[in-house]
Amino acid sequence: MLLPASHKNSERFKAQAINDFSIFTVQVLGSLLAGMIIFSQGWLWLNWIITPIILLMFGISVWYFLLSKKKMNKI
Fold first, then answer.
1. Can you tell me whether residue 8 is helix, strand or coil?
2. For the segment 14-35, what is each residue's pLDDT rounded down to a tens digit?
3. Given 2, 26, 49, 52, which residue has the most CB atoms within 10 angstroms?
4. Are the C-beta atoms of 46 and 34 separated by less than 8 Å?
5. Are 48 and 36 in contact (CB under 8 A)?
6. What is the domain partition of the chain in residue ranges?
7. Cα separation of 24 and 71, whole Å?
8. Using an 8 Å Cβ cutoff, are 12 and 4 in contact?
9. d(Cα 34, Cα 28) in Å, to the nearest integer?
10. Cα dist from 14 to 27, 30, 40, 42, whole Å
11. Helix residue ranges per DSSP H, the chain
12. Considering the entire predicted model, what is its pTM?
């Protein structure tokens, strides 16, 4: 809802289509790369590769939570 609302009426469908295409492309590439890594290196390597990404996302989530909590205290 937020993506189409931030564009003109004539651009909404194109923006949504580009967004959906980008998301599905990244999902396909991620699945294919994960499969290649599992079959060539095994689960251990896949876990080692994905762990820093998970930790980064966790850190961003904590940072966002603390930032939003700080904003709520100001109100």
1. coil
2. 888 999 999 999 999 999 999 9
3. 49
4. yes
5. no
6. 1-40, 42-75
7. 34
8. yes
9. 10
10. 20, 24, 39, 40
11. 2-5, 12-40, 43-74
12. 0.60
